[in-house]
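Quick one:
INPUT:
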């Protein structure tokens, strides 16, 4: 799209005309360069088809439809009559209409409209994209204390202790996620209000509503990630495969102990799975609410030290629960 503002030096309305054009471009969400052409003399005025200062043309057409056939070229200040009033600037409505008339014939690559933003929202501003993206990252980091235990249980990777380390940072990460999300949504709302004022192209475009819906979905995603520890136990129970507890008729012992610093339900599910996979273990249950572990095992094939090692490697400590007692088979537990 080619936008020209023709003027001569000393015209008082040249600068206000340029500002009005830029304001309409912002309102319409249009990206285009504006060429300000200084007309030096009468010869140049006739050559350029100059109808007076300021003259605004879009793709070679005057924004005043009635003046497009005029041949009254010359070095004079120009006035415009609209609504019974004479002014030194063309009305905003004329400029807007000229831009809209030019848009259908011009591709987005040529600057008629803004490219679609890579982050949901009516504007593709870098600060907004950064804040919204960072809020997702912060929410994920705040929940790593319960995400990593599930990863450890499913893959066998040694990241359970790393998950416990993230618990100390969770309050700060949650605060950062909230601040970043609020900042990103505020910028998105500001951009939407600026670009979608009544009567603009954006306001009439259904896509703007979808952008707002996408922002809402993004906000729900951040909230869901931040709240993951509260429902991580259900997720872990669904995805973590428990070990086969069949041990035949061998005499079994039971060890009970507490894990007082266990910090999320997913950790309990992960520890249950890891303890249950130890050779000689018939069953293992770690309860998050009571922070209590119960392990049934074959004394000849496993011992309490191995259980304590698993818990310690996960970043937690073991405390005695009850005195050792005998199982139903008469063997003493630890």
């Amino acid at each position: 799209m080619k936008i020209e503002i023709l003027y001569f030096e000393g015209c008082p309305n040249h600068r206000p005309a340029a500002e009005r054009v830029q304001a309409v471009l912002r309102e319409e969400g249009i990206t285009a360069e504006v060429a300000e052409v200084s007309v030096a003399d009468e010869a140049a005025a006739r050559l350029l088809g100059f109808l007076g200062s300021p003259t605004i043309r879009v793709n070679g057409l005057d924004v005043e439809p009635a003046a497009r056939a005029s041949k009254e070229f010359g070095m004079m200040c120009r006035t415009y009559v609209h609504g019974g009033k004479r002014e030194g600037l063309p009305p905003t409505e004329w400029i807007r209409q000229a831009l809209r008339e030019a848009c259908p014939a011009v591709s987005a690559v040529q600057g008629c409209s803004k490219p679609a933003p890579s982050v949901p929202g009516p504007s593709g501003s870098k600060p907004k994209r950064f804040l919204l993206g960072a809020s997702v990252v912060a929410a994920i980091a705040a929940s790593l204390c319960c995400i990593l235990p599930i990863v450890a249980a499913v893959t066998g990777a040694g990241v359970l202790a790393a998950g416990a380390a993230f618990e100390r940072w969770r309050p700060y990460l949650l605060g950062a996620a909230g601040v970043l999300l609020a900042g990103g949504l505020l910028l998105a709302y500001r951009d939407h209000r600026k670009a979608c004022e009544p009567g603009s192209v954006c306001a009439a475009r259904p896509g703007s509503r979808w952008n707002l819906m996408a922002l809402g979905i993004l906000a729900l995603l951040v909230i869901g990630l931040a709240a993951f520890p509260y429902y991580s136990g259900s997720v872990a129970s669904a995805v973590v495969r428990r070990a086969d507890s069949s041990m035949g008729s061998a005499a079994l012992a039971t060890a009970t102990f507490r894990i007082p610093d266990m910090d999320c339900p997913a950790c309990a599910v992960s520890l249950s799975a890891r303890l249950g996979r130890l050779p000689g273990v018939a069953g293992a249950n770690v309860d998050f609410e009571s922070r209590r572990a119960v392990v049934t095992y074959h004394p000849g094939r496993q011992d309490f030290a191995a259980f304590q090692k698993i818990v310690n490697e996960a970043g937690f400590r073991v405390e005695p629960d009850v005195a050792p007692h005998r199982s139903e088979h008469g063997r003493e537990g630890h």
